[in-house]
Amino acid sequence: VAYSSTTTTVPMMQLQQQQTSRPPNSTTSLIKAVPLETMPHCFVIYDFDGTVFAERLYHTLAKECKKGDGFDASEIAVGKVISQGREKIIERWGGSQHVSRMRAHFAWIRKQGRAYVRTALHTFHQKRIIRHLFDSIEQDYTEWFDELICSEHEIQKELLDGRSYSKNLMLTRVSHEYNVDLSRMLYIDDDPKLERNVRCCDVYCTQTRKGMNSTDVDEVQHQIAEKMTAHSRVSIANGNMNGNMNMNHQNVYDPTNAYKYEQCAGCSQAFDPRMLLCSGGIYICSSCHAQQPRV
Length: 295
Prior knowledge:
- The chain is an alpha/beta fold and about 300 residues long.
- It is built from twelve helices and nine strands.
- It has a five-stranded parallel β-sheet with strand order 3-2-1-4-5, with helices on both faces.
- It starts with 11 loop residues before the first helix and ends with a helix.
């Protein structure tokens, strides 16, 4: 194929193939999916660009890669990002306020416990780019995400190599490879076509394509709480009183998690407090919260 000398941007699929390409002496290993031994009540998959990270960095890298330049162009683009100073990268994160918002959000998730909520980061970037971007805000990405589905991940590589990539197919593969029911999965993305393109599981689309704002964070946490509550009730209905949750009595001490049980102010049912929303010391379950009028 002959390429003209005119500067053009690389299509997304071509850049994906460039970033997953390696020189002959490369030692980069494939990241394999390890099935979860215990199915969480909620498995949340976050898109990176425009969602967790404010800038749509992948599109920026694409502009740096000239059509036909192949591996060298993508490496130059990556190098430019990695060589930038900390202040510039924080700007690309959306500023210190957005970073603080993300810290608080994932701190809330971790308080729920990994047995209840697991997280994954979905991106076309290389692992080293993700690590560098998180290092720039002095954050270990593994504290926020249990799984990294990046360009070196077996799911991404297989779908991109087969030229059959779609978010719906990716999420279906995640469900299969990690042994998680699709009903327990929640996908967060900034793509306005998200609901049309993803039909296999629940989704949430951010209000803008510049990172999660405070409303986005509240809504995502609300949906997570709903899934946790729903699957806890299913366990009780099935007589599973010895599983992850024991919610049959109010304020009963459970030595396995050291949490007492709290009563929802709306329906008076007893819940593990990690399943409830709390404001001013008043607990409310996700179902009652959903029935409240929104201002």
